[in-house]
Structures are given as structure tokens and as C-alpha cells.
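[Discussion] Sanity-checking designs against the backbone

I'm trying to build intuition for which residues belong where. Below is a C-alpha cell string of 295 positions. I'd appreciate it if someone posts a full sequence so I can compare it with mine line by line.
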């Protein structure tokens, strides 16, 4: 019989809106058990609580009072949380977004594991994908991380489209300052950009179970494109289904979901998780839930 009382304990959570379907708790708790921890992971759903991002100061303080050692942060809080932190990692500072907060010794330190999470999934899922011109939809917190990852992975020109044109322009300007003039630009003509693109990455929330649909007209897709998603609920979005029907190479959001969790687990606990084991567990969770598999 396992003596759970003898195991080190850890309390973590996720703050975001509409997160009840998240697989993050299951991934962290299973890996914690495999590592000999009594790890408990709780969802703090803004929608369920009837709160907005303006409640973050109170939620962070409450988490500290209750003994949380770490928090993951997702939409719509990845940028709003920054002024509430004591320090930022180099990645979080460069990206202007935080998805992981370590609470330790009265200090709040923000990290970002989205960039490395997407990069690892991209390398594994789309090896040798052409990297000349790529269109990215979405310039929010996750979009910033993915854009940095794409340029670091060798994309020569990144065209960024967002419903907020000024946000796309600001992200492109920051990327050019870091990676060189001309490496990124805000999109002004999506059909023209798609006609010249090698690949497409959706970093917008469109395609999620709570926001179904296509993030761009299906007629802009063509078989020569590769198409990547960061949405993982469902694992097959309408965009991926349309792209696969045309014969495009595709990448679902599962890899980013797992590898950002790998990084967060390491920050939270100081223990290196088994990434392969977490990937297998994620696959089991998706296979066991029909709602995960299709839009």
C-alpha cells in the first residue's frame, strides 16, 4: 500500500476563461504521481466564477494564501498578469507574455513555456517543412510566443494577421527589432499573403470548442501549404479538417500543449519530467474522450 503521506506535496493551478475541458490538470497530476509527488492541480475558471482578467490581483493573492506553489496562466490573462509579478524570465520579458508563475518565498516569478512548447512540437511534427514565408493568425500572448519560435526555427518571413491591426503591427515591429529588419510584417492583404505562403499557423482562438469555425476562408487553403494549430480542444479543428481534405501536411495543437506543460512542471517542482511519458498520457486522454477528437 502506497504511503501518500510520506510524499512531498505540491499545489498548482490554471487561471483562464472557459478552461473546464483543459487536460493540463490530468497531465500534471499523473506526472507528479510518477515522480513521487502528491501533486494537486486545480482549475480557476474565470467564466465559471463570473470574473474577468481584472480579478487577477485578488486571485493571485488568494492563491498565495492557500499555499499554491505555481500557476499556469492562459487566455485572457497572459499579458494582464505581468504588472502583478516581481520578476520575469528572459523569455517572458522578450515575449511580453506569461503562461507560468512560480510562487515561492513571497515572490511571484513569471515564465513562458509556450515558445519552447511550440518549437518542440513543430520540430517533431513538421520536420523539413519549408520555412520561406509563413502566415500567422493571431498576435496575442500565445501568438507572440509562436512567432518567436517560428523565427528561431528558421522562418525567413512571417506575415502576422490579427483582428486588431495595431497589435499585429506592434508584434511585427518587436520581432524585426530582435531578429532583423524584414523578418516579420503585419498583414494587410490576407489572400495575397496566403497565395505566396509556405505555411499557416493559427494562433487565434477560432476553432476551439467554445468558438467553432474557420479562422480564415477555406478557399485560401491549397494543398502545397502546411498548416499548424495551437488549439487542442478539439484536437481536430475545422481548419485542420479542411486542410487535410486538401492533402496539406498538418500539425495539431497537442504537441504544444504537452511541451509547454513539460516546461511548467519543471519550473513548478524543480524536477525534470518524462516528456515521452507525458506525450503518451496526453494521447490516452484524447483517445478516451470523443469530444476531444473532432470539432
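Best answer:
Here's mine. Compare freely.
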Amino acid at each position: 500500500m502506497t504511503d501518500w503521506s510520506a510524499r512531498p506535496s505540491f499545489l498548482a493551478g490554471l487561471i483562464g476563461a472557459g478552461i473546464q475541458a483543459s487536460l493540463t490538470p490530468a497531465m500534471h497530476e499523473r506526472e507528479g504521481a510518477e515522480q513521487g509527488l502528491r501533486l494537486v492541480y486545480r482549475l480557476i475558471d474565470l467564466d465559471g466564477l463570473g470574473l474577468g482578467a481584472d480579478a487577477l490581483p485578488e486571485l493571485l493573492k488568494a492563491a498565495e494564501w492557500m499555499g499554491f506553489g505555481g500557476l499556469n496562466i492562459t487566455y485572457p490573462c497572459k499579458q494582464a498578469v505581468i504588472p502583478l509579478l516581481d520578476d520575469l524570465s528572459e523569455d517572458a520579458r522578450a515575449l511580453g507574455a506569461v503562461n507560468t508563475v512560480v510562487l515561492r518565498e513571497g515572490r511571484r516569478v513569471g515564465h513562458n513555456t509556450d515558445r519552447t512548447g511550440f518549437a518542440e512540437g513543430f520540430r517533431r511534427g513538421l520536420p523539413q517543412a519549408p520555412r520561406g514565408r509563413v502566415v500567422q493568425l493571431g498576435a496575442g500572448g500565445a501568438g507572440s510566443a509562436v512567432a518567436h519560435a517560428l523565427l528561431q526555427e528558421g522562418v525567413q518571413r512571417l506575415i502576422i494577421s490579427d483582428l486588431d491591426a495595431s497589435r499585429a503591427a506592434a508584434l511585427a515591429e518587436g520581432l524585426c527589432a530582435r531578429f532583423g529588419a524584414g523578418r516579420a510584417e503585419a498583414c494587410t492583404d490576407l489572400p495575397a499573403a496566403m497565395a505566396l505562403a509556405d505555411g499557416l499557423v493559427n494562433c487565434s482562438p477560432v476553432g476551439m470548442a467554445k468558438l467553432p469555425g474557420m479562422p480564415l476562408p477555406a478557399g485560401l487553403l491549397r494543398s502545397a501549404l502546411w498548416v499548424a494549430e495551437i488549439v487542442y480542444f478539439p484536437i481536430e479543428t475545422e481548419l485542420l479538417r479542411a486542410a487535410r481534405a486538401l492533402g496539406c501536411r498538418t500539425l495539431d495543437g497537442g504537441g504544444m500543449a504537452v511541451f509547454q506543460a513539460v516546461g511548467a512542471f519543471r519550473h513548478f517542482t524543480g524536477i525534470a519530467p518524462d516528456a515521452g511519458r507525458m506525450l503518451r498520457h496526453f494521447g490516452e486522454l484524447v483517445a478516451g474522450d470523443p469530444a476531444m477528437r473532432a470539432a
